[in-house]
């Protein structure tokens, strides 16, 4: 480091704090033997802004590397301004007051924000970005209550930058953000294994609090991102995802999921819509942007009228709700068996023609058997006897409010829409389509493997960093118990395999649940589609265009699928052969056996 003038002096810190005139003066080269953050400033005739560099020593990371630097007192577990419990949370004997998620701790003070230096290093020397940002603790129970907490980064003009400029998500075109989230994977975090002081439950008698179920979760650190990625091709709004490692003031902080933040700015950049045209709703009527008036009108209209009435249903379809989007959202939640159904965001574009609300998929951490079935399912079956069948869970509410997990206010819109036969058939047909394509077992297993492979090289370091021994040494041990078995990579691998097993068995289980709930006596049948000449045409079955034949999928006999022959330019459709001999391009395929085959004939 060389000052620009002789009368200038460099002062620096090595603990993350901002360098000031009283900080260590620079007098010569600094020898580093471990990962260190150096923040330096020029003071004198030509004062400068602080410059921050984090030097990672001894570790090679295949993931991107992030670094945050700020006053270290903010991140202490005891009384840290952002991270800490606060002195008010301890008795005179040092015992914690309250229980998880410690809602009176500093981490729950949502208005607290600090300025920090942020660095982002692409792997393999692919480029570095640096800027100052605002940092807040972000999220709900799993994000604020666990030792490793989620954080949101904000670009602020007072920090020097109005945007965070970097292409964090290579599969998306956006490279400018007002804010991003460094997510700890929520309830899919390793702390599901050591948060509650209760042992696993093996016997069920009198009802117990929900909290006693939340033990020994099958954490993987990518469950929500994986579920969102499966549904991205449907057009549902999903958050960009990229795993990375974080160093905080030079201290290894483990794996974080970089996520897009669902705000009006996300909608502006993704859908090319002005912020002034957006109504963005959270929960059951809170307007994060714009107004909740139309949303409230929608809930009142649907809740107060019969959706079996054709004109009422069409009014909802034309005025309030994107039906296809609404169905895809709920099928995603149902497929994943995510009973934490209250994490709702939807939005609309205001216009003179009106704008239908579209649902946004996020916070799917409870999906894919996060909680061990031998512990959680018996408890849910006892207290919520319909949990195992998600169609029943959605349509048999407990109470009329919006309480967890499935009170009537949470399920109102879905239950009311099911009064309509057209909606019900669309739901059933779309469920069949998705299970045959985007949610087909081999595809889901391949996606799980891809996402697990990306973070596997980092898991041993990550689990060591957030082990019981480590967090207790840092002052976070008092309210927690020692894990029932050590956090190991083998343990994580078992959890990943539990997700694979869920994906292998889920399609058949979901088909059975649908048949039971809607009382479909015909069951399922395998439909096989071929074409006489694939160079001359394709076939669409319901919402799927079949481009390679032969193609097979399972459909419900009580709701035969719709087939449409699609001749290519210069070709003509002649007719169907097999289960149908119609010459109409669009038919409802008759299903009279467990296996049904049909060929589209082109010339």
List keywords for this structure.
single chain; 603 residues; alpha+beta; 3 domains; 4-stranded antiparallel sheet; 13 helices; 25 strands; 27% helix; elongated
Provide the gyration radius in Å.
27 Å
Largest sheet: 7 strands, mixed, barrel
Strand content: 15-25%
Tell me the number of helical segments per DSSP (H or I, 4 or more residues long): 13
Low-confidence runs (pLDDT<50, min 5 residues)?
195-214, 479-483
Terminal residue distance: 76 Å
The total strand number stands at: 25
What would your notes on this structure say?
- The chain is of the alpha+beta class.
- The chain folds into 3 domains: about 10-55, no CATH class; about 65-435, no CATH class; about 525-600, no CATH class.
- It has helices at about 140-145, 225-230, 265-270, 295-305, 310-320, 325-335, 375-385, 390-395, 410-415, 420-435, 440-465, 470-475, 490-520, and strands at about 10-15, 25, 35-45, 50-55, 65-70, 115-120, 130-135, 150-155, 165, 175, 180-185, 240-250, 250-260, 280, 285-290, 345-350, 360, 525-530, 535-540, 545, 550-555, 560-565, 575-580, 585-590, 595-600.
- It is elongated.
- The N and C termini lie far apart (about 75 Å).
- Residues about 195-215 and about 480-485 have low confidence and may be disordered.
What is the secondary structure topology, with strand pairs?
Elements: E1 9-13, E2 24-25, E3 36-43, E4 51-55, E5 65-69, E6 114-121, E7 128-137, H1 141-144, E8 151-154, E9 164-165, E10 176-177, E11 179-183, H2 223-231, E12 241-248, E13 251-260, H3 264-271, E14 278-282, E15 286-289, H4 293-304, H5 310-319, H6 323-336, E16 345-349, E17 358-360, H7 373-383, H8 390-395, H9 408-417, H10 421-436, H11 441-465, H12 468-473, H13 489-518, E18 524-531, E19 537-541, E20 544-546, E21 551-556, E22 562-567, E23 573-578, E24 586-588, E25 595-602
């Amino acid at each position: 480091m060389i000052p620009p003038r002789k009368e200038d002096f460099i002062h620096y810190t090595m603990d993350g704090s901002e360098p000031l005139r009283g900080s260590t003066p620079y007098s010569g080269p600094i020898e580093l033997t471990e990962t260190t953050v150096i923040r330096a400033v020029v003071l004198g005739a030509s004062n400068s802004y602080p410059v921050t560099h984090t030097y990672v020593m001894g570790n090679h990371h295949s993931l991107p590397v992030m670094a945050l630097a700020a006053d270290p007192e903010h991140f202490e577990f005891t009384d840290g301004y952002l991270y800490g419990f606060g002195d008010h949370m301890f008795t005179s004997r040092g015992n914690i007051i309250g229980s998880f998620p410690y809602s009176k701790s500093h981490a729950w003070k949502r208005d607290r924000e600090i300025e920090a230096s942020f660095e982002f290093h692409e792997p393999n020397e692919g480029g570095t970005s640096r800027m100052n940002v605002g940092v807040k603790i972000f999220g709900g129970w799993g994000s604020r209550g666990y030792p490793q907490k989620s954080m949101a980064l904000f670009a602020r003009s007072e920090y020097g930058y109005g945007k965070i400029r970097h292409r964090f998500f290579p599969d998306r075109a956006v490279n400018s953000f007002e804010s991003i989230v460094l997510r700890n994977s929520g309830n899919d975090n390793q702390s599901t294994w050591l948060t509650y002081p209760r042992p696993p439950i093996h016997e069920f008698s009198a009802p117990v609090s929900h909290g006693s179920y939340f033990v020994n979760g099958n954490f993987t650190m990518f469950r929500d991102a994986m579920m969102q990625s499966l549904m991205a091709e449907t057009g549902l709004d999903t958050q960009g995802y990229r795993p990375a490692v974080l160093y905080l003031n030079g201290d290894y902080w483990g794996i974080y999921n970089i996520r897009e933040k669902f705000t009006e700015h996300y909608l502006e950049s993704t859908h090319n819509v002005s912020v002034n045209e957006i109504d963005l709703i959270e929960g059951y009527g809170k307007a994060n942007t714009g107004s909740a008036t139309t949303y409230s009108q929608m809930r009142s209209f649907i809740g107060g009228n019969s959706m079996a009435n054709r004109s009422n249903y069409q009014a909802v379809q034309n005025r309030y709700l994107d039906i296809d989007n609404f169905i895809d959202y709920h099928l995603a939640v149902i497929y994943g068996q995510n009973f934490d159904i209250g994490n709702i965001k939807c939005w609309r574009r205001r216009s003179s023609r009106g704008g239908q609300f579209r649902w946004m998929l996020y916070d799917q951490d409870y999906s894919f058997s996060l909680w061990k079935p031998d512990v959680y399912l018996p408890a849910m079956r006892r207290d919520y006897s319909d949990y195992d069948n998600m169609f029943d869970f959605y349509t048999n509410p407990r109470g009329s409010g919006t309480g967890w997990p499935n009170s009537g206010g949470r399920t109102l819109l879905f239950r009311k829409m099911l009064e309509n036969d057209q909606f019900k058939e669309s739901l059933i047909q779309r469920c069949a389509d998705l299970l045959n394509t985007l949610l087909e077992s081999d595809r889901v297993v391949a996606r799980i493997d891809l996402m697990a492979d990306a973070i596997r090289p980092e898991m041993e370091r990550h689990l060591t960093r957030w082990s019981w021994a480590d967090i207790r040494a840092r002052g976070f041990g008092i309210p927690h118990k020692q894990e029932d078995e050590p956090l190991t990579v083998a343990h994580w691998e078992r959890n990943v395999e539990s997700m694979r097993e869920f994906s292998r068995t889920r399609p058949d289980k979901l088909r059975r649940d649908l048949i039971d709930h809607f009382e479909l006596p015909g069951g399922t049948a395998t439909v096989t589609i071929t074409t006489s000449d694939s160079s001359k045409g394709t076939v669409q079955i319901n919402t799927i265009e079949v481009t390679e034949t032969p193609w097979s999928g399972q459909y419900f006999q009580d709701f035969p699928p719709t087939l449409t022959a699609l001749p290519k330019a210069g070709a003509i459709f002649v007719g169907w052969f097999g289960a149908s001999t119609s010459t109409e391009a669009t038919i409802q395929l008759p299903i009279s056996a467990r296996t049904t085959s049909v060929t589209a004939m082109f010339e």
